Amino acid sequence: MADSQTPSLSIDLKEAYDIINQSNLVIFKWTLSEDIPTDFVSDSISIFGYEPVDFYTGELKDYWEFVYPEDRERVKAELNHARVHGKSNYRNQYRVICKNGEIRWVEEWVLHERSKDGKLIHEKGIVRDITESVIVSEKLKESESRYKELFENASALIFTFEASGIITSYNHFFADLLSLPYNRKGLIIEDYLSKDTKNILNGKSFYDYCMAQIEARIEVQFVDDEGREIYVELNNRIIFHQGKMGELQSVGNDVSDKKLAEARIRYLTEHDTLTGLNNRLYFDEKLIELEKNDQKNVGIIMGDVNGLKMVNDAFGHKTGDLMLVAIAQILKEIFTSPTDTISRLSGDEFAIITHERNIPFMIDQIQLACQKLTQFPFVVDISLGYSIRKKVAQSLDSVFREADHLMYRNKLRRSKRIKLGMIDALKTQLEVKSIETARHSQRMGKIAQIFGSYIELNDAVLEELLLAVSVHDIGMVSVDKRIIEKKGNLSTAEYKEVMKHSEIGYHLLIATPSLAGVGEDVLSHHENFDGSGYPQGLKAQEIPFVSRIIAIIDAYETLTGTKSYRQAISSDAALEELLRYKGTKYDPQILDEFVACIKNSF
């Protein structure tokens, strides 16, 4: 059909026709019948594997057989719509079936020739193979869809913004991080920057700040809609539009936990965890800093808490810690200047760096505030000393050593008095905890006075005996009141707790030089003559002489005095009980003398 018509075409048209036959364009002219037989098709139909005759008389004389079945109804509907509405041309895309069964995409451009009255005369057009571009488009759509999914659901925050600061897109991570609804329009990035970050910008826009650091990782502090501060590390890249710089894309991670951990480590490095004051490391670094700055009139105050070990031994470390916290609070309330540095240097030692001139007055304030602490069953006291750097030539280390020396000199004057006062406080505390225990010691004291005179102890030994008896149970202050007052037998665990009292009493007493001598007596007053006692298992003459006396007096008074857990027995019965353990629990010679004394004195 094509061969019979081409000779009638002009040379120009023939050349154009030859060009078309060499391309992926196919020219069609259709009839207007329902099955749309083809009036003309160019030889280039061969790109789909057919010849023009296939459309004239062959299997495709019904053009719709060329169209892929799933697209036929849609294409028919669009064609009818164009006919009915008088369109002169329209474009369409659909799939066709090749001779070899392959399915390919085509784009159809149809022209409608109409008479003057608008009646359709001819339909003709060009069909172009667009399979490759459709494949590319589908891959692009798939790629875009995949990118969008990655963008929206990435486990990192991603957002883009313009030079104006307007956020043009952001993902779910960003929305969740800043407590924002997804896809809110018109957000300005500067509205979500913290005050500290804005100070770092120093008047620059966030866009310019990021542009200046494209190759660097930057740290930014955001503030969400609820006022929560969030630390983020960002990497930025430029997005180009048609070769020109457009938006910036920021990709980052929430590093708030990391920052908190770093801050915590830094805090622990520089602070004492118990009191919250600065520690020794920070104090030393502060001295170095002040030394470099050549600052004069720097004052250093040194303080040492009196009796901390006694408090820990008697009342436990928890009470000792509470005392240190109370002293630290006093120091913080008195030294309030931003230039003051308060540090806890060690267990019981504090130091203050200050520019305050009236340091003696402030030391008096510290002592007065300590005396007003009423939550402890003893007087809280701290020895203090200070020194001031009057010349830049004087090293701060020498100022520190002078303040430390004066503090220790002051401590020597105060410590003995404070510790004796604490022993009295502990005896009072024991009396409050158990009146029975206090009365037991008082009755023992009377018996000790009589027995000491009876065996003609010299004044020094008698004084040691009476003092040891008065404090022999001082360690009981650390034993639970429920155990002390328990009726009936103690459990193994409870008995072990009570057994600790001699060691605790020893540690309390040796902390005071004037009482250190009786510390050994108190430690050993539960040792047995045959070595079966506690806490060291001493025997015979290894046990201090005074301790051997106390053991007998203690047992006799316990048997003859009324206790919460049993009735008292007679003096004779008590002595008979003691004699049963002669040479095992008790020194036989001292026991014989004690029995004789009691029988002759009462």
TrEMBL record:
Gene3D superfamilies: 3.30.70.270, Hypothetical protein af1432, PAS domain. GO terms for molecular function: diguanylate cyclase activity. CDD domains: GGDEF, HDc, PAS. Keywords: Nucleotidyltransferase, Transferase. It comes from the Bacteria. Residues 90-142, 216-267 form the PAC domain. Pfam families: GGDEF, HD_5, PAS_3. It is an enzyme of class 2 (transferase). This is Diguanylate cyclase.
